[in-house]
């Protein structure tokens, strides 16, 4: 499944402990996507994952800790960045990946649920911020390479450029019912490249 | 209070009915900012607003309808657009207004609460989308005038340009703990202008 965060539960190394974690996180993600944090119940997650309740309570303790671990896992399992040789190509690949993730019914609902939970829970907010930091770290070398190739001015805030690609897609997801189509993704990438080339993201602008 | 949505309860015309509505919406906004939709209780809103419970139940019926009316009121009470004579000036004024709104503790918490509620309630989502449509309608003439002045290419999607200004500010609010400072607002305006001038927002791009 070619989304920004591959599904918990997909093929991965590890023994029984890793399999239990994968099954629990898969069940937690399903529950979150269906009903949000308010309906995330550890006993229900254990039942869905076919794992003992005691294991789930002992290892995760609370819904909030379960969401934090789910986000950590999503970051670990995320697809690596794409390298196309041009900034526009790389950022378009990033925008399309984010778009596919948010437009996927399960993943889109999951991100909405976690963003909503983060607005009223500091631990969830910290875990969510960490997820985005990891994803920005993974993609910012695309922008760094563009600076080195001379495509972008020296002093460009490479992380802010990566964030600019995602922003309109998340904004559309959360504040409108306009479709998250590929044209929106491509426009997000093109807008970011135009702004970055114009020097908008150089640090001296701050 | 110079925020995108002036406070419900500020000076406005009308008799007793309008005063009751203003008091109830002010109390509802306070409750939402403090605890989110899950803690919005009509009886508690009536108590805070010093209005009879029956009035509140009869007129608003449910927390969801109360939030929808609050959003409608926020749109009605919003500040008009600024006219500076240049696209960058106008969009910078818009970005700074959005930033001030989101950085204001009460208003920022209120927007977070409503966005979170909209992720799991269709009526709230519809009311929220309507709020943004009204705000985009109010500001898009700035972009239309820039097209007419020859600052931007013909065929520019004027509404999408306005939305591009807000996107990075909301994205920062919801996915990071980076401060919503004026530099971020100015950069949002500058990035949008650079992209719009480059033709990224022309409809043929879709």
TrEMBL record, chains A, B:
Database matches in InterPro entries: Homeodomain-like_sf, HTH-type_TetR-like_transc_reg, HTH_TetR, Tet_transcr_reg_TetR-rel_C_sf, TetR_C
DNA-binding span(s): 41-60
Record field: transmembrane: none
Top-level taxon in the UniProt lineage: Bacteria
GO molecular function: DNA-binding transcription factor activity; transcription cis-regulatory region binding
Stretches assigned to the HTH tetR-type domain: 18-78
Keywords, sorted A to Z: DNA-binding, Transcription, Transcription regulation
Protein name, UniProt field: TetR/AcrR family transcriptional regulator
């Amino acid at each position: 499944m070619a989304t920004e965060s591959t599904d918990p539960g997909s093929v991965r190394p590890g023994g029984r402990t890793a399999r239990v974690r994968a099954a629990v996180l898969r069940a937690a993600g399903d529950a979150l996507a269906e009903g949000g944090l308010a309906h995330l119940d550890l006993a229900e997650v254990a039942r869905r994952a076919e794992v003992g309740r005691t294991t789930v309570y002992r290892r995760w303790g609370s819904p909030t800790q379960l969401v934090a671990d789910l986000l950590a896992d999503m970051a670990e399992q995320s697809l690596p960045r794409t390298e196309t040789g041009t900034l526009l190509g790389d950022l378009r690949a990033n925008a399309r990946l984010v778009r596919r993730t948010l437009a996927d019914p399960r993943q889109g609902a999951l991100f909405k649920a976690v963003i909503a939970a983060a607005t009223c829970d500091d631990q969830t907010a910290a875990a969510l911020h960490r997820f985005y930091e990891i994803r920005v770290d993974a993609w910012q070398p695309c922008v760094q390479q563009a600076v080195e190739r001379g495509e972008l001015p020296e002093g460009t805030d490479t992380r802010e450029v990566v964030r600019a690609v995602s922003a309109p897609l998340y904004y559309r997801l959360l504040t409108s019912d306009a479709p998250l189509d590929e044209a929106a993704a491509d426009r997000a990438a093109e807008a970011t490249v135009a702004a970055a080339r114009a020097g908008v993201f150089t640090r001296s602008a701050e």
